[in-house]
Inverse folding.
């Protein structure tokens, strides 16, 4: 039976709180079952795996029925019946038994996800019938994959988000499961409710796990707490700096006291000498009745000298008191620093989530992709027991899924081709996770055919990315696949081939402050190495100085520091050798718009060695100030859109220091002509096929517009809002832009204004397509400089007529 994919879940007879508990528990159970499925695929007769799956299904079924989610309960019940029959030896799974179980668990996961999104689900009758038949030792010969059960609507893979993303959890172990004693609600609101007689048959099986003790924390609240801990660290650093200055002032006071006492002693000596000399002179003239020391004027001078001596002693005593207090404050600040660090570390641990929590989702992606393409694929996992910052893991989930789909669709060959090449018919994809210092390294590798460098080169020439006579190394050719819109696919499929993907992966890695490296061996496969910071909130950074300005550079991208003689910088394209690799020398002053580095007073020029993907750069600076732990602060969207700015941090004295990502600055300078100043940007390149950028926050509009343009022979790049578009245009300039108005972060008006103020982008024609068809909105767009203004929904002929007109080319007619 079919239903509207967007139909809302009927909560009339359901307890929303109980539904939420079931969805949360169901997700955990299905993730655990996925690991058992992987074991069962390796050893189909593994009794422990079968019993574990049976136990998970039993708990899931009981929870679903208790919550009133009857379709999940019925499918779980029939799957449990099959496993029970297999364990008791009444039937066998058969050759396709494990794939069938995988389809069943995937369907359960889809239904639980939809329930969590408050969307209706239908009773999976065909799949239930198949499992019941298998339990009896027969089959209905119905392909469960074609079941009419409502599933989640298709969406763009890279923009999907995990269903449980908004919540972070801290759990503690609990006692074993207890049977439920409450009556079971009926499945009202679902398309096929279960009768009371069915429930009565299995009353003893209806159980639900005892709720685990847990602390549910909203993700945004946790982020704020981590931010506050970072603020405390900043204030502590400021206190330490001020206390250090106070300690320096006390030291100066001690020196002043010593100087004062010395001057006072010299004053006393001089005073006594003058008294003696005066006595000798007056002794010759006087009658000797009075001793000079007894005269009033000498007594006053002595009294003042003694008073000064006492004041100096008091001054020394006060200085000693302040010195003792300062030592106490330093001790207290040290203790506070330790507690603050433990607090921050504890909060950071709370933000960390196990990487293996992502694995069931990745397994499902591989299963679905390989099933659609008729390929046999095995997913191998290594070292997935580590932890990663929740924000990093969430933002990398969609790129990882896309890389896996790419590996299945483009990398791995069909079984026949693999057999002909002397390989096993089953291809393998390997995901390895390891820690290297403050970084987490993710390796995604397949044993497929490798990158087709000839096709990549041909495509690069067609798009004007490289010249026909250009001599490029293999690694340089491989990096072309990271260009926006780059694809060598000869046909478009639902899984891959739309011409977007790896550029999104590279962009996400770059935004996280990581790096992406590619290594391909023809006939043996491709290896992608992603280096990511373990956390986004606190990181280690190297501080450098250029002129009077200080910058922080994340240590993840720094290979080391060095020095180079000034004579070595006088030649053309100087390089610096480090670790057996050549690093091209650049100047941080030129990269950031400051004066060139001079390093005055130093015989050699300090260098900061940067490595990012295939990039190797040695950057000249005036001074390397050292490294320290910093709290990363996000900057506003206007500043974040500037290439090379990763964020900012606050120093102990209150100064704001910009965190630089040097790699895009180097790439940007390398793309500039050598005979023009640094600030001048190159003109848009002439392409054989015009490139049109579609900027819209609607996935549907991006897809529809992209397909229309591709159908007319245009290259297409997409962006989800103004900031995304600006970032993509740092490396490419489109020939035309289709622009929406209402978008998050930066709307269409703001983007158009930014483009008209940029010498690189001001000549790009803009067609604004929006539902805002009022004259006021149209007039504002025209004042900004928008060339055409169309309303939604647009007519394809009208759109293409404007596109051809603005590009100055003749419209094609079929």
């Amino acid at each position: 039976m079919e239903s509207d994919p967007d139909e809302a879940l009927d909560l009339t007879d359901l307890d929303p709180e109980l539904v939420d508990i079931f969805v949360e528990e169901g997700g955990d159970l299905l993730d655990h079952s996925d690991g058992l499925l992987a074991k069962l695929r390796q050893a189909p007769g593994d009794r422990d795996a079968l019993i574990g799956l049976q136990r998970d299904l039993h708990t899931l079924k009981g929870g679903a029925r208790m919550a009133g989610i009857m379709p999940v309960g019925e499918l779980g019940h029939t799957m449990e019946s099959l496993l029970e029959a297999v364990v008791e030896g009444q039937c066998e799974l058969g050759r396709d038994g494990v794939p069938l179980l995988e389809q069943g668990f995937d369907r359960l996961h889809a239904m639980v996800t939809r329930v969590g999104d408050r969307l209706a689900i239908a009773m999976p009758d065909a799949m239930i019938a198949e499992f019941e038949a298998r339990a009896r030792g027969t089959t209905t010969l119905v392909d469960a994959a074609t079941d009419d059960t409502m599933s989640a609507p298709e969406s763009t893979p890279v923009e999907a988000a995990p269903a449980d993303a908004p919540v972070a959890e801290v759990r503690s172990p609990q006692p074993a499961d207890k049977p439920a004693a409450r009556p079971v609600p009926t499945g009202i609101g679902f398309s096929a409710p279960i009768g009371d007689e069915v429930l009565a048959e299995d009353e003893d099986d209806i159980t639900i796990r005892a709720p685990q003790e847990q602390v549910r924390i909203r993700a945004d609240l946790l982020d704020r707490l981590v931010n506050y801990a970072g603020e405390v660290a900043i204030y502590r650093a400021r206190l330490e700096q001020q206390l250090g200055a106070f300690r320096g002032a006390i030291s100066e006071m001690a020196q002043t006291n010593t100087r004062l006492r010395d001057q006072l002693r010299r004053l006393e000596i001089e005073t006594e000498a003058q008294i003696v000399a005066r006595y000798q002179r007056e002794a010759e003239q006087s009658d000797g009745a009075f001793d000079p020391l007894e005269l009033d004027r000498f007594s006053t001078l002595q009294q003042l000298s003694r008073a000064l001596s006492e004041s100096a002693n008091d001054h020394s005593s006060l200085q000693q008191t302040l010195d003792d207090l300062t030592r106490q404050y330093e001790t207290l600040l040290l203790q506070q620093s330790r507690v603050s660090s433990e607090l921050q570390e504890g909060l950071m641990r709370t933000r960390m989530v196990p990487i293996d929590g992502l694995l069931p989702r990745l397994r499902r992606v591989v299963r679905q992709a390989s099933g659609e393409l008729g390929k046999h694929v095995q997913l191998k996992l290594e070292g997935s027991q580590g932890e990663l910052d929740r924000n990093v893991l969430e933002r990398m989930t969609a790129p990882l899924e896309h890389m896996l789909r790419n590996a299945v669709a483009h990398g791995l060959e069909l079984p026949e081709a693999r057999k002909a090449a002397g390989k096993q018919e089953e291809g393998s994809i390997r995901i390895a996770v390891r820690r290297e210092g403050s970084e987490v390294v993710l390796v995604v590798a397949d044993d497929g055919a490798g990158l087709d460098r000839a096709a990549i080169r041909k495509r690069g020439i067609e798009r004007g990315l490289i010249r026909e006579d250009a001599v490029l190394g293999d690694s340089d050719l491989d990096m072309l696949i990271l260009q926006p819109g780059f694809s060598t696919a000869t046909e478009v499929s639902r899984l891959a081939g739309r011409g977007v993907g790896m550029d999104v992966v590279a962009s996400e890695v770059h935004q996280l402050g990581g790096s992406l490296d590619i290594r391909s061996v023809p006939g043996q496969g491709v290896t992608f190495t992603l280096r990511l910071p373990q956390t986004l909130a606190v990181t280690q950074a190297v501080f450098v100085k250029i002129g009077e300005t200080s910058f922080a550079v994340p240590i993840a991208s720094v290979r080391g520091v060095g020095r180079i003689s000034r004579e070595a910088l006088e030649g053309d394209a100087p390089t610096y050798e480090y670790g057996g690799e050549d690093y091209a020398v650049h100047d941080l002053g030129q990269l950031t718009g400051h004066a060139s580095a001079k390093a005055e007073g130093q015989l050699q020029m300090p260098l900061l060695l940067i490595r990012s993907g295939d990039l190797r750069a040695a950057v000249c600076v005036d001074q390397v100030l050292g490294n320290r732990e910093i709290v990363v602060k996000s900057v506003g969207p206007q500043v974040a859109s500037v290439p090379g700015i990763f964020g900012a941090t606050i120093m102990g004295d209150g100064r704001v220091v910009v965190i630089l990502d040097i790699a895009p600055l180097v790439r940007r300078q390398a793309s500039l002509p050598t005979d023009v100043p640094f600030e001048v940007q190159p003109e848009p390149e002439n392409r054989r096929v015009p490139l049109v950028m579609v900027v819209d926050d609607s996935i549907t509009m991006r897809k529809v517009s992209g397909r229309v343009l591709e159908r007319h022979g245009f290259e297409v790049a997409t962006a989800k809002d103004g900031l995304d578009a600006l970032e993509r245009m740092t490396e490419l300039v489109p020939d035309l832009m289709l622009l929406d108005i209402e978008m998050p972060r930066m709307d269409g008006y703001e983007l158009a204004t930014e483009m008209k103020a940029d010498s690189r982008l001001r000549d790009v024609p803009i067609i604004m397509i929006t539902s805002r068809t009022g004259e006021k909105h149209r007039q504002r767009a025209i004042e900004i400089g928008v060339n055409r203004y169309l309303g939604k929904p647009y007519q394809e002929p009208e759109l293409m007529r404007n596109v051809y007109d603005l590009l100055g080319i003749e419209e094609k007619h079929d």
Observations:
- The longest strand covers residues 427-436.
- Residues 141-179, 181-212, 673-687 have pLDDT under 50 and may be disordered.
